[in-house]
From TrEMBL:
Location of the protein in the cell: Mitochondrion matrix
GO function term, MF aspect, one: estradiol 17-beta-dehydrogenase [NAD(P)+] activity
Assembly information from the UniProt record: Heterotetramer with CBR4; contains two molecules of HSD17B8 and CBR4.
Organism superkingdom: Eukaryota
Name assigned to this protein: (3R)-3-hydroxyacyl-CoA dehydrogenase
Enzyme class, broadest EC rank: oxidoreductase
This protein's pathway: Steroid biosynthesis; estrogen biosynthesis; Lipid metabolism; fatty acid biosynthesis
Native organism taxonomy: Eukaryota, Metazoa, Ecdysozoa, Arthropoda, Hexapoda
PROSITE patterns linked to this entry: ADH_SHORT
The species this protein was found in: Camponotus floridanus
Length: 249
């Protein structure tokens, strides 16, 4: 076993699928104890069952609900007698609609899960770390998207939510730097996961033509970057937004 994040306690949201699940695998491979949190507890448990090591746990979390997030962190601190010092926010949803079709439900869902959810997790995590005197070498990684900086038809609200994640990450890095907590964002391009499966084939083919590497990305290729950002190897990277897109921008 490698030791990139040996002995660390990590909490990953959206851990039941796609990028979040791969992040759990790479963290466990690199020596961390993983709390796999998802609104779908069954898929989070499947993630845990697939990990190396026996100390990992699955946890229910609904990132848009403050009570749920605070309860989840309380349970983790109680069970492990310390707060997690690696936090990866991978919970998110994708909606594709023309602006004229965006209704209040779509707007609320995307903003509440992608933007407010990231805020609640970060806020609760940072408080737990500060209270637990566990801020040194801590690392928070928010998952944004290249959609935050690109223009794509149908992605207005999703792009706005992801641009908000970058803005909040930059401010968070400023506010938490004094404690030793680093905060960075990762901007994946088009990654093969259940989320991107709903994108129509003709759009997919068009996108691939615009990717310099001429292929879509794998969740593991994003997870490796996230775990690097979680580890001491990236000790001077803070407030950054790292693109993992095969060159698409
Ligand atoms: N797949 C891509 O191409 C791509 C590209 C750029 C960014 N992203 C971002 O990466 C992140 C992960 O995406 P993915 O492709 O792995 O998606 P996914 O749909 O495979 O997984 C998302 C997970 O989040 C969970 N989730 C959704 N709402 C939740 C909530 N309210 N509380 C807790 N968990 C919740 C789901 O249950 C699911 O397990 C998302 O933030 C997404 O926006 C994905
Ligand atoms: C991202 O990271 C910081 C650090 O905690 C957090 O405060 C911010 O709210 C997070 N969420 C978003 C949406 O950037
Ligand atoms: C906080 O942790 C540091 C080591 O990381 C230790 O030196 C210090 O004494 C601790 N302070 C308190 C109040 O526990
Ligand atoms: C922080 O990381 C450095 C380098 O790995 C290590 O020497 C130090 O002990 C770490 N501090 C804590 C509190 O983990």
């Amino acid at each position: 076993m490698s030791i990139l994040v040996a002995g660390k306690l990590a909490l990953v949201t959206g851990a039941g699928s796609g990028i979040g699940r791969e992040v759990c695998r790479v963290l466990a491979r690199e020596g961390a104890t993983v709390v796999a949190a998802d609104q779908n507890i069954k898929t989070a448990q499947e993630t845990v069952a697939s990990l190396e090591g026996v100390e990992h746990i699955a946890l229910h979390i609904n990132v848009e609900d403050r009570n749920s997030v605070e309860t989840a962190f309380k349970d983790v601190v109680k069970q492990f007698s310390k707060p997690p010092t690696i936090i990866v926010n991978s919970a998110g949803i994708y909606r594709r609609n023309f602006l004229t079709e965006v209704d209040d439900n779509i707007f609320d869902d995307v903003i509440n899960i992608n933007l407010k959810g990231t805020l609640l997790v970060m806020q609760t995590a940072a408080k737990a770390m500060i209270e637990g005197n566990a801020t040194e070498n801590s690392s928070i990684i928010n998952i944004s998207s290249i959609a935050a900086t690109r223009r794509d038809v149908g992605q207005s609200i999703y792009s706005a939510s992801k641009a908000g994640v970058i803005a909040m990450t930059r401010t968070a890095s400023l506010e938490f730097g004094q404690f030793g907590i680093r905060v960075n964002a990762v901007l994946p391009g088009f990654i093969i996961t259940p989320m991107s499966a709903i994108i129509p084939d003709e759009v997919r083919e068009m996108v691939i033509k615009n990717i310099p590497l001429q292929r879509l990305g794998k969740p593991g290729e994003v997870a490796e970057v996230i775990v690097f950002l979680a580890s001491y190897r990236s000790s001077y990277i803070n407030g950054a937004s790292i693109e993992v897109t095969g060159g698409l921008n």
